[in-house]
Amino acid sequence: MAIKRIFRRSLAQTRKELLQFRRDPLTVALAFVLPFVALLMYGYATRLEAKDIHIKIFNFDDGKLSREYIDAISATDQFNVSAGEGGDIIAPLDRGEAKASIVIPPEFSRLIKQGKTADVELIIDGTDVNNARVIKNGFFALTQFFMSDHGLRQSRAPIGTAVRLWFNPGRKEPLQIVPGAIALLTWIFPALLSAFALVREKEQGTVLQLYASSITAFELILGKSLAYLAIGMVEAIIVVVAGLAFFSVPFVGSFTAFVICTTLFVFSGVLFGLWAGSKANNQMAAVQICAMIGFLTSMLLSGFIYPIRNITYPISLLSNFVPARYYIEASRDAFVRGGSLLAHWYIPFFLLLLCLLILFSTTRGMSKMQIAK
Fold first, then answer.
1. pLDDT at 311
2. Domains plus CATH for the chain?
3. What is the rounded average pLDDT of the residues 343-371?
4. Most confident region among 56-60, 112-116, 264-268 by mean pLDDT
C-alpha cells in the first residue's frame, strides 16, 4: 500500500508538471526548438580536422621538379598555397598571413637529379599546437607521396604497411561530432527544464504549499523527474532524428541498448537539474549551476572533443562522475561502431548508479528544506 501511495502521489505531481509545461510557450520552445537548432550548429560549425591552412612557399629554384613539388602541395584541400614575396620568410607568420612558410632552396632540382639530398625548410606557427601538428604531418605525407610518385626513393623500405580505417573509412567528421552533440544536448536541456521547474516553485511561493502538504521529498522529486523524463525523451527523439536526417549518420548499433542508455542518461540530466534547482533560489543561479557544473564538465571531461586519457590527473578522476562520459561511448557505439549491450554492460550500470546518487542527494536536500520550513 505504501508503494502504491507513493506512485499515486508522484503521478499526480507528474500530471501537474506536464500541464504547467504545456501552458508555457517559452518553455515548450526551449524544450523542442533549441535542441534542434543547437544540433545543427554543432554538426555544421564544429570541425576538428584543419583544412584550407594558409601557407607561403618561397621557391628559390627555377627547376621543373620544384614546380611539380609545389603543385603536389597545392593539390590537397588541406593547404591554401600562395607564393612568398621577398626574402623574409618569417614576415608572413608575424603578420598572421600564413601558418607556415616553406623554403625550397636553390639547386633543388639539380641536387635531386644527382641523387643528393635537397633540404626543404618548413617554418610553422606553433601558437596552435594541434594546427602545427597537422601541418607537420601533412607536409611529411605530401613529401613522401611526391618522392614515391617521381621514383625518387633510394631503396625499398624493408617493412611495408597497409593502413585501413575501420568504422569510419571516409573520415567523415559528423560521425565524430554528431553522436557527441546528441549526448550534450539530450542532457543539458532536460536539466535546464527541470531546474527551472523547481526554481519557479520557489520564486512564485508555491513550494511552501508543497512543504505544508503531506507529499514527501521523494514523491515530489520522483513526480517532477518522471514528467521531465518524458519531455527529455521527446527531445532525444528530435535530436536523434535530426542527426539521421541532416547529417546522414547511420544507426548501426543495438536499438535496445541505445534506448536503455538514453533513458538512464536523460533521467540523470533531469535529476541533476532538480538538484541544481534545490540549491538555487532564482533561475539565473540555476542556469549558472547547470552551465558550470553540468555542461562544462560534459563538454571537457566526457571524451567529446579529445580522449579522456589526455586529461591531466587528478582532474581525470572527475570524469568518472560525469554521465556524458558513459553515454557518449554508448552513442558512438550506436552510430559508429555498432556495439551491443553485452559488450558495454557497464555503461547502463554506471548511469543507473549515478542516477541513484543524484536522486539520493536531491531528496535529502529537499527533505532538509521541508523540515526547515
1. 84
2. 2-46+172-372 (no CATH), 53-149 (3.40.1710.10)
3. 85
4. 264-268
The secondary structure of the chain, three-state, reads CHHHHHHHHHHHHHHHHHHHHHCCHHHHHHHHCHHHHHHHHHHHHCCCCCCCEEEEEEECCCCHHHHHHHHHHHCCCCEEEEECCCCCCCHHHHCCCCCEEEEECCCHHHHHHCCCCCCCEEEECCCCHHHHHHHHHHHHHHHHHHHHHCCCCCCCCCCCCCCCCCCCCCCCCHHHHHHHHHHHHHHHHHHHHHHHHHHHHHHHCCHHHHHHCCCCHHHHHHHHHHHHHHHHHHHHHHHHHHHHHHCCCCCCCCHHHHHHHHHHHHHHHHHHHHHHHHHCCCHHHHHHHHHHHHHHHHHHCCCCCCCHHHCCCCHHHHHHHCHHHHHHHHHHHHHHHCCCCCCCCHHHHHHHHHHHHHHHHHHHHHHHHHHHC
Handedness of CA 41, 44, 49, 53 (dihedral sign): negative
Instruction: Please state, in angstroms and rounded to a whole number, the distance separating the CA atoms of residues 327 and 321.
Output: 12
Mean residue pLDDT across the chain: 83
